[in-house]
Amino acid sequence: MKKFVNKVEEILTESLSGFQKAHPDIIKVNFSPDFIYRAKKPAVDKVSLISGGGSGHEPLHGGFVGHGMLDAACPGQVFSAPTPDQMEAAASKVHNGKGILFIVKNYSGDIMNFEMGADMIDFDHETILVNDDVAVEDSTFTTGRRGVAGTMIVEKTVGSLAETGASLEECKLFGDHVNNVTASMGVAFTSCTVPAAGKPTFEIGAEEMEFGVGIHGEPGRKREKIKTANEITNDIISTIIEDLKPNKNQEVLMHVNGFGGTPLMELYLLFDVGQKILEKEGIKVSHSLVGNYTTSLDMAGASFSITKLDEKITQHWESAVHTAALRWKI
Amino acid sequence: MKKFVNKVEEILTESLSGFQKAHPDIIKVNFSPDFIYRAKKPAVDKVSLISGGGSGHEPLHGGFVGHGMLDAACPGQVFSAPTPDQMEAAASKVHNGKGILFIVKNYSGDIMNFEMGADMIDFDHETILVNDDVAVEDSTFTTGRRGVAGTMIVEKTVGSLAETGASLEECKLFGDHVNNVTASMGVAFTSCTVPAAGKPTFEIGAEEMEFGVGIHGEPGRKREKIKTANEITNDIISTIIEDLKPNKNQEVLMHVNGFGGTPLMELYLLFDVGQKILEKEGIKVSHSLVGNYTTSLDMAGASFSITKLDEKITQHWESAVHTAALRWKI
Amino acid sequence: MDSENIFLALKNIKKTIDLNKDEIEKLDQAIGDGDHIFNIQRGLNEALKLEHELSNLSPEEVFKKIGMKIMTTVGGSSGALFATLLMGMSKKYSKESNDLENLAAMFYEGVEATKKRGKADIGEKTMLDVLIPVSLSLTELKNEKNIQTVAEKIKMVAEEGMLSTKDIMATKGRASFLGERAIGHIDPGARSSQLAINAICDEYIK
Amino acid sequence: MDSENIFLALKNIKKTIDLNKDEIEKLDQAIGDGDHIFNIQRGLNEALKLEHELSNLSPEEVFKKIGMKIMTTVGGSSGALFATLLMGMSKKYSKESNDLENLAAMFYEGVEATKKRGKADIGEKTMLDVLIPVSLSLTELKNEKNIQTVAEKIKMVAEEGMLSTKDIMATKGRASFLGERAIGHIDPGARSSQLAINAICDEYIK
Ligand SMILES: Nc1ncnc2c1ncn2[C@@H]1O[C@H](COP(=O)(O)OP(=O)(O)O)[C@@H](O)[C@H]1O
Ligand SMILES: Nc1ncnc2c1ncn2[C@@H]1O[C@H](COP(=O)(O)OP(=O)(O)O)[C@@H](O)[C@H]1O
Ligand SMILES: [Mg+2]
Ligand SMILES: [Mg+2]
Ligand SMILES: [Mg+2]
Ligand SMILES: [Mg+2]
């Protein structure tokens, strides 16, 4: 296994330590239980947003702690949901009088651990479950869809609303709304390698890609022969559109997310292709985000996330943000 | 080859097109000859900074065009220096009355093409040659050292100085100074794959790393067995320190740069290790930058760049910047 | 039932899990995210570290503390579920009952809590396909005098449950995202649960 | 010497380069950045597109325009250098001279410009280790009547020059960064230059 690592068991602690040292103006890290929180307490009373999940998706979520986004993030071991004591400790640390809003990606492990954490706190709390991945069939009888790169869009927009002093209920409703109008899907060319495993999670042929892959390298819709950027993007965007059913002239935010191993050059190329396809459908890409934001360790591949914009989402997407990984207007 | 691509010959054009669409508030792209320039003309008369080089190192240089950094960037084909007509056209477009400052990484191809471009313009101009890579022996009889991730530090600081209305001579002197107090070195675990080649540039064993690799996957000091993060960082930092000869209590900027295929988690781990090593030497890491800024397509690996800070460099590092890839205080 | 027994069982479980590491790893790589083996190994290691600290405590305290340790160190689905199982079990220990009665009552309580935690039941391709039948059998057998008979029966039931996960689709947990692609793969949590139960039973089979 | 000759030579060069693509690619991967073959192939393709546009122009115009095309489409070291070579050559064409005299004078001028552009000379493990000896030989042979003799001699000189780059360290260009690690590898630009010269010579060798 080729990684920058001393002891595999220490990788998370050492990485968090470096993260803290690199961004002392934005975040602090608490160790055992591990959580990342804002270096400066918010100036106003506000709902406190806490997210978290397995590590290996950086900058998600720790990179989104700071003004305008999260109040805290709880990193689990690589690809394993964090433990309830982390959520409890983070909540106690950042609670700011207006309740706690947990933002959780829709995986059993995350849901159960966040629930157990929530059971341990006395503050008002709500949970937004993000399930934007249209690669997976949705059904009320099963776990439903996975939460993927759309999560950061929820964190950005709800984070901005919370900053205005909005109530817990308002934030929860808005987050559910943003989640409902956001859909994502990705494709992988290579597997990620979990440090503890030391070898790739899945085998994949030299000419193959996994269509609809999950952000942990989970299998997606199908394994198929590699296609051109135009074809891949078409397949993804049409699946997303089927789900979102946007009107003609709908304005959207398009987020092209790299899984870690794909050069920026290709991500921008995908953005170009995606924009053209949407334009043909009469859909206007008015806002954009291109880069590695919700990664899967070193996996080569990318996902598209599209959010149907309305005035409120647009306002809260555009507003000032000051985190390690996303920073504008401040 | 696994890449998001339609036709290999079109990859650069399509990528630039996506880049333009994703950041219309910051940059514009001119095609044939290709160059990226600021969407808004600077408010003041200032020296115009133009950089460029082969593509495949994104976000370098196009991602650094905008307020506080570059005025224009000229992207060549993947790993090939841009052509003189690009520099000529960019200079004509962005010249702003106070001359042109070219920032060029120290490679024959870049130097010659920038020289030929400079020969074609009538404005005052100067060139800063960046040669921060201490993996390579320096000698006045040879080409000397390579320019690598330290280039963006030069672009940031000189870009800031230029924004104050400083003269061409001042900017040139300051850039040379920043280059002189900056040193870098990297290591690669895997090879990059140039799209046109379709296969990895170099073979490397499952347990090997290339110590002192270049940002085009060029061989470095030696091929060796993979080591721990502590050992690798020690080897790199001691080489850098030997070159920079910092005093005790020297404050430095430490930039951990990913080559594209290495997860952020590992880059922060490296930052942690590097900071500890420097601390033991009595050197204070007061400023930081961690991320994929000077990449080598999909290569797994990372480099350290260290800049000895003085008051002026610190001020111009901290000042406001507003580009696609680097943005703060604005 | 005392702290010593419980830790002996844990050590046996650890041995079996370590021996079957590669298989468990591959199962979660096939239909999950590949971390299951590391999660349970981490949990077992952390639990075993408690041996001295818990050596003089009552079984209910031992189960509770191990459950809490697992809750705070494992993470993932299995961390939440196994912690819930153990903390649930701790609630039903009674000094008045014999070991088998205790085990049956405790396991029943633990499995009920686990079902609630996972919002899941039998037939959803999860560890519950092992845990529920085992719990039901234990309740049936709680008055059986021959402990070896019990152990042999439970072992069989656990194995059947584990194998039953192979040819069904998942409706809970990560494998549920795969739809039909999960068919043909045994559920990793079912396999690790079955291996654990196996290790305990083998201690009573001569 | 006319536009037709020149484009015939270009086509022959392209054929040879394409045939030796893999070798050239590997040479630049070994001691450079791997783009040399793509740079020269791009340059040749762009130059060949000019055939009709330049068909009625004088040799000096043809060289100049091809040089400019290469300058604006190739990039890298070889783009700058080959463009400089061709634009340099265009300056010394004389209607009064015969083809061989012209070629010798033009090539000399082009190579001098190239040396200046690269700030390099013979023995630095670059294309100049082919270009300089060829230029000198051409000057020596400029009055030779038997064109086949000239072609054979030049071919030999180019090959010697190319081979001479193998066992030396580079002091210019990208390979110079490698120090001793470049020893044992032929310089890619020397190889492509030699192949080009070879292709031209072969046209005159029956
Ligand atoms: N909702 C659930 N109810 C019961 N068991 C579940 C549930 N979700 C997951 N599991 C079990 O957990 C196992 C996976 O554990 P693990 O890999 O450690 O966690 P994760 O799925 O979060 O990565 C599955 O194989 C399954 O047996
Ligand atoms: N300063 C120089 N003088 C002469 N020739 C040079 C010089 N630098 C490079 N070369 C030649 O250019 C060749 C490399 O060309 P190419 O790969 O296209 O460009 P780059 O080195 O910029 O990637 C080398 O093999 C060498 O022959
Ligand atoms: Mg997991
Ligand atoms: Mg090159
Ligand atoms: Mg798992
Ligand atoms: Mg090259």
Between the first and last Cα atoms of chain C, what is the distance in angstroms?
20 Å
Biggest interface, which chains?
A-B, 60 and 60 residues
CA-based shape of chain A: globular
Strand order in space, largest sheet of chain A: 1-2-5-3-6-7
Report the sheet with the most strands of chain A, covering strand number, pairing sense and barrel closure.
6 strands, mixed
**Element order of chain A: H for helix, E for strand:** HEEEEEHEHEHHEEEHEHEEHEE
Strand segment tally of chain A: 15
Rg over alpha carbons of chain A: 19 Å
CATH architecture of the largest domain in chain A: 3-Layer(aba) Sandwich
CATH architecture of chain C: Alpha Horseshoe
Question: Strand percentage of chain C, roughly?
Answer: under 5%
**Uncertain spans of chain C, ≥5 residues at pLDDT below 50?**
none
Rg of chain C is: 16 Å
Tally of domains of chain C: 1
Mean pLDDT of chain A: 96
Q: Figure out the total of helices of chain A.
A: 8
CATH homologous superfamily placement of chain C: DhaL domain
Verbal overview:
Chain A has 330 residues and is of the alpha/beta class. In chain A, the strands form 3 sheets. A 6-stranded mixed sheet of chain A has the order 1-2-5-3-6-7, with helices on both faces. Chain A folds into 2 domains: 9-180 and 317-328, Rossmann fold (3-Layer(aba) Sandwich), CATH 3.40.50; 182-309, Dihydroxyacetone kinase, domain 2 (Hypothetical Protein Tm841, Chain: A,domain 3, 2-Layer Sandwich), CATH 3.30.1180. Chain A is 31% helix and 25% strand. By secondary structure, chain C is mainly α. Chains in contact: A-B, A-C, B-D. Chains A and B meet through α1, α6, α7, β12 and β15 of A and α1, α6, α7, β12 and β15 of B. One adenosine-5'-diphosphate sits between chains C (28, 32-33, 35-36, 39, 76-78, 81, 118-120, 126-128, 172-174, 187-190) and A (80-81, 107-109).
